[in-house]
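Technical annex B. To support the medicinal chemistry partners, we prepared a structural model of the target in complex with iron/sulfur cluster, based solely on the information shown next.
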Amino acid sequence: MTKQARKISLTRAKELKNAISNYSQFKKQAIIHEKDIKKIYTSRKEQLLDYFNATEDDWNNWHWQMKNRITDVKMLKKFVPLSKDEYEAIEKIAETNRFAVSPYYLSLIGDKETDPIKMLALPSRAEFHTELGKEDPMAEEFTNPAGSITRRYPDRLIINVTNICAMYCRHCQRRRLIGETDHHTSLDDINKSINYIKNNPEIRDVLLTGGDAFLLSNERINYILKELRKIDHVEIIRFGTRTPVTMPQRITDELVNILKKYSPIYVNTHFNHYQEMTEESKKACEKMANNGLVLGNQAVLLKGINNDKYVMEYLNHQLLKARVRPYYIFHAKRVSGTTHFIPKIEEGLEIMEHLRGRTSGLAIPTYIFNSPGGLGKTPLLPKYIMSHEGNTYKIRTWENKVIEYTEKD
Ligand code: SF4
């Protein structure tokens, strides 16, 4: 290398280092924050174990976690500081839109009033404003040709297998299905769904979701997978689950041993904030990856939680370390009682603009707008082609450097 080339390289390297200096600062703070959250987690976990007179083995058992979900405000107040206003709002909203939080996820709630985990898990006064949304903006009701199917695309469909979740996220797009009671889809509806797939050979990809598909028993999961794998045209099977986030105890050896028999199995999880990436959740993801399951993350862009370029960048980096590929960032849907979470599309585009170039493509999910009425996903992207005349394009780079490119005939 010539001296001149080295000099140019060093100047460029300095420029690139400067381009992520703000993120580097953010990362240092996030690491301190994670340590604080870990302390809160440890102490609240002890408090919960004391209260339930439970052991570490109980804590690590997903049935125990489900049985002891916190579902009423009086009990909640014993573990999480709540103002009088918060207490009253939660009590009132829970009359129509229940909440339930696994002890594990409850332990992750930080001290701040605007703590992201608290906002994701606990009802707030903003949910009273139901007038700006619809119960079912995706019109899923009109996309159910048989059993408990949702079919919106030519070659793939969903089977809704349950309405149960370890934690009822306050931004849930399917909150209308949460209802008053927990129930799994009947075997009859599951069989009708499987029969529909048998009779429609263009269906090559089946997504099991709900609710949370990993809330089914191991036996029921095994049954569904066995039946689906008897159908030659079903190439891949996917699960939609937030259990690695809200109750990682569900990712047991028995479960992954069942799943790996039916490869290829894809698991889409739903981390929204780096505060959700605990040692337990990372281990759960690693266990799945070690057993050949392919992991992707679907985050939802939520105001006050993750509509921040550095939060998203850091989350995506933590996901990759746990072998989960950031797959989608969804623009939140206009569901009644959740519209306070919806940021501006402009904010989502700014995040995408920030990520491109500053981090590797592996850490960049696709930003998706779900068209109302069941018209499907549309990717949203910053504009990189500035103009186009004949076969000449004016294109800007991630650093806003403008180049001209002429295509050869
Ligand atoms: S886990 Fe999924 S389906 Fe369940 S409440 Fe959360 S967003 Fe809704």
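Notes passed to the chemistry partners:
The CA atoms of residues 146 and 196 lie 7 Å apart.
The chain has a mean pLDDT of 95.
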